[in-house]
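---------- Forwarded message ----------

FYI, see the Late embryogenesis abundant protein LEA-2 subgroup domain-containing protein record below. Original note from H. follows.
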Amino acid sequence: MYNNPNRVSYRPTPTAYHRHNRRRCSGRRCVCMCCFWSILIICIIFLLAAIAGAIFYVLYHPQLPTFSVSSLKISNFNLTTSSDDTTHLTTKLNLTLSTKNPNKKLIYNYNTISITALSNQVVLAKGSFPGFTSSTNNITIIHSTLSMVSQVLDVDSVSSLKSDLKRKAGLPVTILMDTMVEVKMDKLKSKRVGIRVTCKGIHGSTPKGKAPAVASTNNAKCKVDLRIKILKWTF
């Protein structure tokens, strides 16, 4: 067979499918690279945050504040039924607590504290305490008057309260406190974060006569939880 050395060899031109396949592979590679770098950057950020947190802990040894209930006096607790068969609750409570800042280098700046007294999810009274600064190794005394005037209760709430009032141990009372707190470290200040303080183990009774009824707080314990808000959710 004769082969002409001057003849140009035939090379098929790439089809549209091959060109599309190459572009698709190139696009996948770009996506993979973007994902890789994004994950790497996120890992580096988390690593730096962990290192910063470790340094902060070593330098300051941060501790949450502690709360304790000193006394709770119930000066008014009145359940009345009106002519339309609705039950109204009127109360007045005097609450005394103490909070301690156990830190040696951190200062807490509190916003106004909202205080709610409950019994098995039934709101008994509400009050507040103005914002304050808790210095290092400092104890602050909190006095607040909680009250509620002619609050309408549903049938289940009335039944729950009457049943608890007949108990020998008395009416179980829970104190909830919500506020925002800022942490100050030397010349640095943190953003304000929410905290919730829950105090349980309190048992009270209705007052007899003019003297207020003193609730039992010997077994009261308070728990402090951070309230971190992300978008519309609070954790």
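H. also flagged this: The first strand starts at residue 66 and ends at 81.
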